[in-house]
């Protein structure tokens, strides 16, 4: 590769990030998700929570990990995108696989350096999430079942998010900020349920366009909608288990459940189109924001 070509790589990666990662979306999600998880974990110990320098290390690490996953997905979905998304940057040549791998290496070095300032446990936890994602990509390359069966693929993909949550919670435990107990597992389950609600919502529709990878294509629209709503209900159940001892004020995040309830009603009555995504997006943002507000409000 020529010196001129090398000098263009940062600009090409920047355009990829703006086009495919949309920082205003993913960075906002990473910020709210990390703050919600950390603040809830700390507040459950009875200790007032306020963000510290380590908080922002975790926030930046999660956002960079999400970018790593987006770059990896772009490569492992190349064959599918050539047919169904011919405008994607890797298909059009706006970016190359080698450039994406270089970006992933730089991100790995960045999160390693950031978390070295926290603890060796934090480094191992964040790298385990990235390592599992790489292993999963290799398995999908070898297994047609993983590539073609949506629910099976989701089952093996979901642990990546669990590992990222374990990184946030585990780094808090390693720092002595929280004492790991059963509530950590419920808190991680809460976050996973919120994420899976959105994942199912965006892939649930009455009609399936040719080649579309929708959960409703295999489950049927009604069952897919019920599963979508069930994940929201699961998140609310986790909140009740964790926060009911704090009284009515502790259940503030449960108010966001009105959005998936409205989304389910609208989807079933419409009998066409997809799940109303503003309801799903609002539930994700509203739940995480309410968790942070709850933690800040507690004495």
Automatic annotation (TrEMBL):
Domain of life: Bacteria
Ranges annotated as spanning the membrane: 21-37, 49-69, 90-111, 117-139, 151-170, 182-201, 222-244, 250-268, 275-297
Organism from which the protein derives: Streptomyces thermoalcalitolerans
Name of the protein: Prenyltransferase
Keywords: Membrane, Transmembrane, Transmembrane helix
Keyword ATP-binding (UniProt): no
């Amino acid at each position: 590769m020529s010196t001129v070509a090398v000098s263009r790589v940062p600009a090409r990666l920047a355009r990829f990030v703006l086009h495919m990662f949309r920082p205003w979306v993913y960075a906002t999600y990473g910020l709210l998700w990390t703050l919600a998880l950390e603040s809830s974990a700390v507040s459950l110990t009875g200790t007032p929570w306020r963000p510290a320098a380590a908080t922002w290390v975790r926030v930046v690490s999660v956002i960079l990990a999400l970018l790593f996953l987006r770059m990896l997905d772009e490569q492992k979905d190349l064959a599918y995108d050539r047919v169904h998304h011919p405008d994607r940057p890797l298909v059009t040549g706006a970016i190359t696989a080698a450039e994406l791998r270089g970006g992933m290496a730089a991100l790995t070095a960045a999160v390693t350096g950031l978390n070295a300032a926290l603890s060796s446990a934090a480094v191992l936890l964040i790298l385990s999430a990235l390592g599992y994602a790489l292993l999963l990509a290799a398995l999908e390359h070898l297994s047609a079942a993983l590539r073609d069966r949506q629910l099976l693929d989701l089952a093996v993909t979901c642990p990546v998010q669990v590992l990222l949550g374990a990184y946030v919670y585990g780094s808090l435990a390693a720092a002595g900020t929280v004492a790991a107990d059963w509530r950590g597992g419920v808190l991680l389950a809460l976050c996973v349920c919120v994420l899976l609600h959105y994942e199912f919502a965006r892939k649930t529709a009455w009609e399936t366009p040719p080649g579309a990878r929708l959960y409703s294509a295999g489950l049927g629209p009604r069952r897919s909608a019920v599963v979508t709503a069930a994940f929201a209900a699961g998140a609310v159940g986790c909140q009740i288990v964790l926060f009911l001892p704090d009284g009515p004020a502790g259940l503030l995040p449960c108010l966001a459940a009105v959005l998936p309830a409205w989304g389910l009603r609208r989807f079933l009555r419409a009998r066409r189109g997809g799940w109303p995504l503003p309801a799903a997006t609002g539930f994700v943002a509203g739940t995480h924001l309410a968790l942070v507000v709850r933690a800040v409000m507690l004495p």
